[in-house]
Amino acid sequence: MEKNNAIFSCCSSNSITKDIQGARFSLFPMSDNYIDIILSSIKKVNTCNIHSQTDYTSTVYRGTDIHVIDALKAAFIYSYRDKIHMSMQVTFSRGCPGDKAVDYKLCHEPLKVNESDICDIHFPVLVKFSLYPLGKEDYMEDIKSVINDGIEMNVYHGSGHYVSFLKGDVQDIFKYFEKIVLDCSNTIKHYVIEATFLVNLPEEV
Amino acid sequence: MEKNNAIFSCCSSNSITKDIQGARFSLFPMSDNYIDIILSSIKKVNTCNIHSQTDYTSTVYRGTDIHVIDALKAAFIYSYRDKIHMSMQVTFSRGCPGDKAVDYKLCHEPLKVNESDICDIHFPVLVKFSLYPLGKEDYMEDIKSVINDGIEMNVYHGSGHYVSFLKGDVQDIFKYFEKIVLDCSNTIKHYVIEATFLVNLPEEV
C-alpha cells in the first residue's frame, strides 16, 4: 500500500462536513446470545432521518446532532436485557478536517422519530467518558464546562484517571449527552467524545 | 456537588506526570462466562513494574511506556479463549495537564516481565483506533505519521469514518502499538489513543 494515501484521499473537508455529527458505536452484550441481541436491536431503530452503516466492528450513524442521538439512544435501549451485563462504546465526532461529504443525511425536522417509543423506558446506567477538543490550546476549559453540566444535571459521578464517570437513569444520561453534544457543536470546531455505557454490572456501584 | 472541584483538584501537573503512560482498559468477552474470563486473566498479569488499579468499569495501568504495554498485552492474551468473541477497549493517555503524580510506578529496567510467557502465542486480531493529539494545531500530521507506520509494518487495514483499522497477528499488533506509543511520547506533549481490539468475530473479515 502506498504511504499516506488513506489520509490524503479523505482530506476534502468542506462546509457540509462541519454539520455532520457522527456516532460510531459497538454493543458488547456479555452473553452467549450476543449476536441476536446486537442484530435485533440495531434492526429495530428507526434510521429514516440519518445515514446508518454497519461494518465488522461497529455501526456508524451520521446526521444532525439530535437525530443521531435519538437513534443511538434507541439502539442502546433496545439492546438492554434484564440481568445481562452489556457495554456500549461510542465515539461522537464532529468537524474532523479529514471528513468527507459522503454517507450522511442532514434532517432539520425537529421531531425525533424514535423518542415516543423509548421515552418511558427506565434503567440505571453507569458511563465513563472523555471529551477531546482538537486543534486548540485552551481545551481544558471545554472539559471543565461539560463536567459542570454533569454536576448541574445531577449525573456526574466523580472522576478517575483519564475519564469522568456518570451515573443515572438512561433518560437523564441521554439528556446530558444531547446537551453537551449540542453545546460542543456550537463552540468547538473539531471534537471527539469517547463514552462507554454500562448496564447490569455484576457488582453494586 | 460544587462546580469545577473535580477539575481544579486534579490540575497539579508537574514534571513527573509527563513521564507517566496510562492505559485504561476493559475486557468484554461476549460469553455467559465473562466474569471468570476477565478476573482470571487480570490476575495472571505480572504487574510488578507498573501501578495497577481496577474499578467497576475498567483497569488502569500507569508506568513507563514499555512496561504498561507489556502488561496490557499480557492481559489481552490471557483473556483470549478459543471461539469466544471478545473485545478489549483501551485508552492510552500521556501528558494530560490534569494528571496528578499519584498512582504510578516508573520502572526504567528494560526487561519486560511478561514478554517471555506470551511471545509465542499467536492469534489474529482486528483493531479500530484513533490518535488524538491535544493542544496543537498541526495534529493531522501526527495522525498521518502513525498511519504510515501501520502501512510500513503491514498491519494497516484501511480506514472508516473516525477510525483506522488494523489487522494482524497479536504479536505484530502489539509491536505496532509499542512503536507508535513510544514515538508519540517523544513528539507530542499530550496525546490519547483510543483502540478497540476484537478477536473471534462471528463473520470472516
Any overview of this molecule?
The structure is a homodimer of 205-residue chains. With 205 residues, chain A is an alpha+beta fold. Chain A is 32% helix and 28% strand. The first copy, chain A, is built from 6 helices and 8 strands; from the N terminus they run αβαββαβαβαββαβ. In chain A, helix 2 runs antiparallel to helix 3, helix 3 runs antiparallel to helix 6 and helix 5 packs antiparallel against helix 6. The longest helix of chain A has 18 residues. About 5% of the residues of chain A have low confidence. At the A-B interface, strand 1, strand 4, strand 5, helix 5 and strand 6 of A face strand 1, strand 4, strand 5, helix 5 and strand 6 of B.
Q: How many beta strands in the DSSP annotation of chain A? A: 8
SS strand fraction of chain A? 25-35%
Q: Which structural class best describes the helix and strand composition of chain A?
A: alpha+beta
Following the backbone from N to C, one meets helices and strands of chain A in this order, namely: HEHEEHEHEHEEHE
The profile of the biggest β sheet of chain A is: 8 strands, antiparallel
pLDDT average of chain A, as an integer?
93
Summarize the structure.
The structure is a homodimer of 205-residue chains. Chain A is α+β, with helices and mostly antiparallel strands.
Q: Which features does this protein show?
A:
homodimer; 205 residues; alpha+beta; eight-stranded antiparallel sheet; 8 strands; 32% helix; globular
SSE inventory with pairings:
The structure is a homodimer of 205-residue chains.
Chain A: H1 5-8, E1 21-29, H2 34-44, E2 51-54, E3 59-63, H3 65-79, E4 86-94, H4 115-118, E5 124-133, H5 139-152, E6 156-160, E7 163-169, H6 170-187, E8 191-199
Antiparallel strand pairs in A: 1-3, 1-4, 2-3, 4-8, 5-7, 5-8, 6-7
Helix pairs in contact in A: 2-3, 3-6, 5-6
